[in-house]
Amino acid sequence: MVSKRRLSKSEDKDTLTEDASNARKQPLSKKTKKSHVYYEVEENDSAFLKLLKTSGIILKTGESQNQLAVDQIVFQRKLFQTLRKHPSYPKIIEEFVNGLESYIEDQDIFRNCLLSCERLQNEEASMGTSYSKSLIKLLLGIDILQPAIIKTLFEKLPEFLFESMNSDGINMPRLIISQLKWLDRVVDGKDLTTKIMQLISIAPVYLQHDFITSLPEILGDSQHADVGKELSDLLTENTSLTVPILDVLSSLRLDPQLLSKVRQLVMGKLSSVKLEDLPVIIKFILHSITAMDALEVISELRERLDLQHCILPPRFLASQSKMKNKGQTRSSGNQEKSDEDCVFLIFDIIKSAVRYEKTISEAWIKAIEHIAPGSEHKTFDLVMLLIIYSTNTQAKKYIERVLRNKIRSGCFHKDLLQSTFYVHYLVLKDVCPSILSLAQNLLHSLDQSIILFGSLLYKYAFKFFDTYCQQEVIGALVTHICSGNEAEVDIALDVLLELVVVNLSAMRLNAVFVKGILDYLDKMSPRQIRKLFYILSTLAFSKQHEGSSHIQDDMHLVIRKQLSSTIFKYKLIGIIGAITMAGIMAVDRSRFSSLTQGKADLSNDQYTQVTSLLQLVHSCSKQSPQASVLYYDEFANMIQIVKLAPKVLEWVGQTIFNDFQDAFVVDLCAVPKGNYPFPVKALYGLEEYSSQDGIAINLLPLLFSQDFAEDEGRRTSQESDHKLVSPLCLAPYFRLLRLCVEKQHNGNLEEIDGLLDCPIMLTDLEPGERLESMSDKERSFICSLICLTLNWFREVVNAFCQQMSPEMKGKVLTRLKHIVELQGILAKYLAVTPDCSPPLAAFDLETLDVTPHASTAFSAKIKKQGITGRRKRKAGGNETSSHDMISKEDGSECDPTPSNRGQLEKEFKGKEEKTVSLQNYHLLFRELDMEVFCILRCGLLTKFILDTEMHTEATEVVQLQPPELLFLLEDLSHKVENMLTPSVARRVPFLKGKGSQNIGLSHVQQRTGQEIVHCIVQLLTPMCNHLENIHNYFQCLPAENHGVVDGPGMQAQEYCLMSSCYQRLLQIFHGLFAWSGFFQPENQNLLYSALEVLTNRLKPREPDQSLEELLSQSFHYLQNFHHSIPSFQSALYLIRLLMVILEKSRVSTQNKEKIASLARHFLCRIWPSGEKEKSSIPNDQLHALLSIYLEHTDSVLKAIEEIAGVGVPELINSSKDASSSTFPTLTRHTFVIFFRVMMAELVKTVKGLQAGTAADSQQIHEEKLLYWNMAVRDFSILINLIKVFDSRPVLHVCLKYGRLFVEVFLKQCMPLLDFSFRKHREDVLSLLGTFQLNTRLLHHLCGHSKIHQDMKLTKHVPFLKKTLELLVCRVKAMLILNNCREAFWLGNLKNRDLQGEEIVSQNSQESRADESDDDTSSQVSKSKATEDGEEDEASDREKEQDSDESDDDDSD
Fold it and tell me: What is the pTM of this model?
């Protein structure tokens, strides 16, 4: 038998030895061959010598090779025939072998017999191979000689076991064993196995290794099992032979049980073996895996294999030794290189296994997937996922899904990924393209944590890989930036920005790729353009590298080209780029002066470049007020973020201060001259100035001059000489001035504090009775004037909100009060001036596409209020579906509740009916900074009123009032909603316009999510104070009339304000705790701080509280507010806030029940109703709250039965406008919401119930059967409600979810009935009987839809009828399975409407067959009434299917 062959190191050595011997022994040419001296063996009477010579071999002595006169095969055949035909056969064999033993007693002769023979024939005459075997190997090829010669060899071999190697380099034991390799046939394999194993047991270690690795080349397949058992026993005894034994076992055909035993033995020693032995061990383990035990083996291998500890210690020791002595690091460096090579070899073996063995790759992914969330993952896990991702194309989607789940659960985090790249960067470098492909797919996700993980893949690939991979990373990031997807653009720019900061020198090599992004500026937002120019400017103007003039030249060319463009959009881009570049050029490098030992300030040349660039931007933008506004805002943002060199900051501050004073500030004594349409007055001053020394803001004259110039379209020469600045620039110019003063004086604003209390040149803004008599132009002028005044006050509040003196705080509160008053006045003007288009507060690229430039657009926007709100809701977060979001307009409007306050409500509404909501006009107002909300901390402030001699004349107590509080909370909630709630990343084509959900938030967008959350956490204490005060306010209201005692209008207004503040506070709390960043480890401290604030409201602070304790106490604190909730919107926000707190807890069962109880409490509560609306509860919010109740309750089926079986009958028996007494939120108008949610949750619940198998216990079958009985009963109750509530939406819900329920019944319940029918016959019949009545009603509903030809209903009919037919067939199959086929019979079912009346369009033959057949049938048939009814439906549908389809065509 031919044995299984393999190549090994020992064989290579033997072959090389034989080849070397051949080369040494063979003659170099014919000439040398003739001159060579041969020493032939003298002939004697030995049969051995005679037979060899007769057969064609000549034996030589000394260093001469034995000569073969004939071909090897001829020699073996001649010798075999001679021996067989010899007269003394078989005795001649013994004589022959004895002769051989005598002949090889001499060591040199024995060596010659082991070396290859020499051929006498010329090379041209040789018919065989050029290689000649040795004499011993030729004799071993003769079957009758083989056993005796093997015995002789094994007897001879021990003589050489402990001898040193010969001078010619030949190892005799290896040479003897090599004779046994690759024999064409082994006569006695068992004996040979025994001999060689005995030899292995006594041989030295170095020979044991060679003998073991030679076994596959020596033995046949029949001996593999015996050898495997022997080797496994040897492995137990001698661990030093682990590597050769496993190497051999991998090449043998062994029993799987034996392999499993050896594998378990090796696996136990895996953590203690040497690193250089690991490759062979890993190879054996992977090759011994079967499909049955793959997952188990891979899981154990993953647990025991820790390559990180194999790499890091040598690397750490090498670094330590380098620090101690640089001259003694060669050995440690070699050791580190050797270890890395071993690890690299291990991964090569694993790569090969997962590439060609699908079982291993799938098992490895599952092993990582099944790791418990609480367990710690290793760097090895991530490496394996990346390797399989690169080698197995079919598993890519599976791996991506596993990665996403692990990232969401926090198992794969930043530190783990960084460690993975640090430890295994050599292995990962080979799969760089796959890593970039994976990162690209992760960046397409909607989950912020997954996007962040993808960005980290790019970052670490650039950091740890070589130049080529770095170039690929930059190319991939540039592709993301040019894709047009806003989320991808943002994260890719953030990665580039971080790479520029961390590794500037490497980024400079790829600057040409980054420069290419300048061609794609059209569809970028201002924030993205800012980042791009910051990156390019850093590459161009970094101090460490001066050789980047080409980048600087390109930057200057692009910016000058855009600034000089006549297209406004490109001019704005040029302004943003120029200001960003100037900020990088003029940055204060004094902090680096100690390191660079250079000049801290700018050189004169650099100073000139910066000032000339700023002057260029100013000159290019001054012709357009909109461009000037953007210039001032960008300049202010740059000053706020970048620390400018003192020389530049001084020049900027002085220039801006003088220009602002000249443009906008006038003396009070200077009476404005001009023909103004309104009397000009100095209003809103906070100090009593004399007419000689006061100043004022010259607003109305400037606005009038601008409007007059626009109307006339020309200026006189005198006007053109006088430089006029647009009033649009007032607020942004002041912001720039304020920030310059702050930077120069470390936050001290005494130099400009006169602007806080100075008056403004205005006119009387309160419309009074003259509002209707004013012309449209006058009203538009007043609207613009009010907007400009509002923006001035907003920037004043931004500037002085952080001043610490009580007097300044009181003035800021007064300005805040002025803002609220002016907004109310503006709303009145806008209500009667629909075509008005006031000036916008900011001008950037995002406002260009959404700004209503035409009056008609603005009018349409006012007439269709709510469109913007709905658009925002759609873009504002993916935590809930669209019907779960709370309308912003619903949140702002609050109805003061009681039904007995109808007249008061009418009076209050009548006074305010001519106003509009300003929420759609947020583009008109300047953005409030986050620092403004420190006003929420203000309590009672005492404001001192001084006389002319600076003595206290009087004191006034100032406090934050509800209108101002609501104003601040609305703005803060808007910021939280847009900045902390993750927006859904829309897949917008690059050439299409993008959404504008973040317009008006340019300042807060400069901050990170962590910074915003930190600011809000600092405000939690004052917000809790306000929340508790409002809670106490509503608690103190008398229950019978909700606090309305006297002053109806004022009380109603106060109630509405307090209710709105309540809602906004809960909304802010919800947005804060719903922030996805809390799941990141670096933000855990922020979460702890926020929870501690809530916990400390209940009891004094306790140190070292666990997260679970903080969550539980915070939940309890917030839950206490449910008694005072004034509106349904606030109730929903409170529920959602508690759910967000609950999601962060691991022990959530008890609190989950509290959520359900609280939701039920709100559903059973009487809520206020408005005058015009029949219900003040928006449908989407009611849908959300009811869904929350059913999702969190213990038994969904019981809850549905309670609502449908108790609440709905109460509603049916009540009057038309009344509601259910148990569930007051259930009215005739909200019934469709309740019906839809109950049907959807019923289907969802039964989907979650597993079908079960026949192997389940009897108790499980009974529990599931009982569960399905309850579900069918609920379905029956809901379906029968359409007989009373037959509106179109209700019928649509019934058709849609009725079909889904029947489908789930088919998939989940029918298999249960198959093996429950015999033991629970009556229960199954009862279940089918109830369900048959429901399906019959669904059939009637199909007929009703066809009669009315309602497209919305009829589109569901074909799918529903198909499902009902499948149910009939499935019931029949169940009966056949249980040997009850005789109980199945067919009948015809009449087409009826919802009231059960027959549809007369049916054929007369069909009309004769009705349900009376059931009454006349046999008793057996009656017991099977359920199946009969189903078959009635089947036959009826089969006969009418064609007519139904024709009806569909007609209705279409």
Answer: 0.73
